[in-house]
## 1
Amino acid sequence: MDDAKEEDLHTSGTDPLPFRAAVDALRAARLRPQVEVEPTRAPQRLAPYAYALEAAVVDGDQDLADGRLVLLHDPAGHDAWRGTFRLVTLVRAELEAEMAADPLLPDVCWSWLTGALTARGLACGEPSGTVTRASSHYFGGLSERPSASQIEIRASWTPREGLGGVPDTAAHLAAWCDLLAQIAGLPPAGPGDASVVTLPQRRGPQSR
């Protein structure tokens, strides 16, 4: 990666102090070993300041699920956010066809997100999002491939700001990794929210 691209992945000394502190907490977070996280280029038009991470749940040389988490910051505040920070995420994984056909699946997947935050004792405002399931069927030269079903969670929420106007981004990242692990079919890393429903292991892992 060249120096210009490397700079795009990090904060600068001219960024607001709350944003720099929030990003530093993300970088210092200790996460479960099955989740590999690394910085990636952040979107430039959603907020004056942004920082992004991408992650994959890994078992050996196989990816079980993947996602992206973006931290947005607008020092002037944002009416829709009702705060100065916003977290935006995309999480996806493949599922068994019969699981994807379950009519309760979208509600269960949304409960995974809210339950992951609750289990970490995190309060958030203005949550919104979508749960999408899709199926792929292959024809012609690809007809030997089995049909595949995928679940995708897109969501955003406003983290509660603490001292100095800085949210506990490390805890939010840990909760997000809990969500990734759950959609991948891994057992909980520790005590969780008993009200959250866990579905069986999703479709077989994909080679990296």
## 2
Amino acid sequence: MTEPEVEKKPARVVVADDQTVVREGIVMLLGLLPGVEVIGAAGDGEEAVRLVGELAPDVVLMDLRMPRCDGVEATRRIREQYPGTQVVVLTTYADDESLFPALRAGARGYLTKDAGGEEIVRAVESVLSGEAGLSPSVQRRLLERLSQAEPQSAAVVPTPPVPPDGLTVRETEVLVLIAEGLSNQEIAHRLHVSNATVKTHINNLFAKTGLKDRAQAVRYAYAKGLVRPPG
């Protein structure tokens, strides 16, 4: 006598997109498909991080370009704070400046918004099984990038400095860029995040270190060995 098959639980998903029509459309589409249960929807990255903390979804479908906190920063925070939740990017953009920061931030899947419902479900299932959920066009772009990369076997990659005083890796990156003389806008462009996100990192690192202004931040970065004097 064969044992009855255990019914597979649907993946619990949060959808994050700042465009109401798009967000509601994705929620409606996924509601028609088996294997997925949408348990929440967020209008920006801040709300997405909050919902993950409250609802503990299996996967977040994450747009990239959103106000307050963009998708890359939200992905980084979710993966650092809630490692049990995977992130699949669902965006209009498949350029290198969107793709690679998202993957470095911890996204395990990357789809463009021309993906159909079944493709989205497959990506969700893939990341939950430990695989990458990438659209064919994104896979091609990754292969092209790898084929263009020059061999780096002889290069010595410097070890990044250990963050002092409880700073996160991202806060330390921001501090180093301040010491290099970059403005908030230039830092945002370099790290592919919003100006508001940069300001948040600066406020946090100032609070942790007791710094009052950028001049003190520059001296602090040199004193801690995070940057070296020219020459």
